[in-house]
Automatic annotation (TrEMBL):
Keywords: DNA-binding, Transcription, Transcription regulation. Residues 40-59 bind DNA. Residues 201-225 are annotated as: Disordered. SUPFAM superfamilies: Homeodomain-like, Tetracyclin repressor-like, C-terminal domain. This is TetR/AcrR family transcriptional regulator. It comes from Kribbella jiaozuonensis. Coiled coil: none annotated.
């Protein structure tokens, strides 16, 4: 059979560039509302306005979808920081983490993690993966600090750095006590820095608007000459 020239092949439906973030967003929403068992791919597909096939082309299982959605949420809500010093990095991360923990969504997520991780090994794996991701980012921050010549102690442990802060959130969620407010970021980061950084004096680096304000209010007077 001879080919028919000049006939353009039919194409399928164009790929929706917003589909993946929308799917992740609704996956997290359903996880928070129903827990892992109650979240189904069917319901995520319906909420996101896509077909199940669209989800399964990207994620082979509900577990992978939930894992990816939660990791994406944490990366967005508590982004990595690279301020030029380990003190600045920790302070920025602690501020955003405390702000998230004090939000309605963040508190709901922490409570869900506590309940689900003890009940379902699949859920526990999701939260372990989230913590592992944060541990990797923390180790990278320590490596950057060492490369800059900061005196990071050999005993600095990225696992403990992440888990002690996560432990505060879990204990507060279990006992019903209020989460530490974002204003406590310096005090809590100071605890970590005293454990990992030789010569830490408690003097916080100032950047951006804070630094500019300090320069205006406390900077050297202009040279009259």
């Amino acid at each position: 059979m001879e080919p028919i020239y000049g006939v353009r092949p039919r194409r399928g439906r164009p790929r929706d560039p917003e589909a993946e973030p929308r799917i992740r967003r609704y996956a997290v929403q359903l996880l928070l509302e129903r827990g892992f068992d109650g979240m189904t791919v069917d319901d995520v597909a319906e909420a996101a306005g896509v077909g199940k096939a669209t989800i399964y082309r990207r994620w082979a299982s509900k577990e992978l979808l939930a894992n990816d959605a939660m990791a994406d949420l944490f990366d967005m809500e508590i982004p990595d920081a690279d301020t030029g010093s380990i003190a600045g990095d920790l302070l920025e991360v602690y501020r955003t983490a405390l702000a998230f923990a004090n939000s309605e969504r963040g508190l709901a997520l922490i409570r869900l993690a506590v309940a689900e991780a003890n009940r379902d090994p699949r859920s526990a794996q999701i939260y372990r993966d989230v913590l592992d991701r944060r541990i990797e980012l923390t180790e990278a921050a320590l490596d950057r600090a060492r490369a800059r010549g900061e005196q990071i102690r050999g005993t600095a442990d990225s696992v403990l750095m992440v888990e002690w802060m996560a432990g505060v959130f879990v204990v507060r969620a279990l006992t019903g006590r209020a989460m530490p407010p974002p204003e406590d970021a310096e005090r809590l980061a100071d605890v970590t820095l005293r454990a990992i950084l030789d010569g830490w004096s408690g003097s916080w680096p100032q950047t951006g608007p804070e630094r500019q304000l300090a320069d205006r209010e406390f900077g050297d007077a202009p040279d009259p000459s």
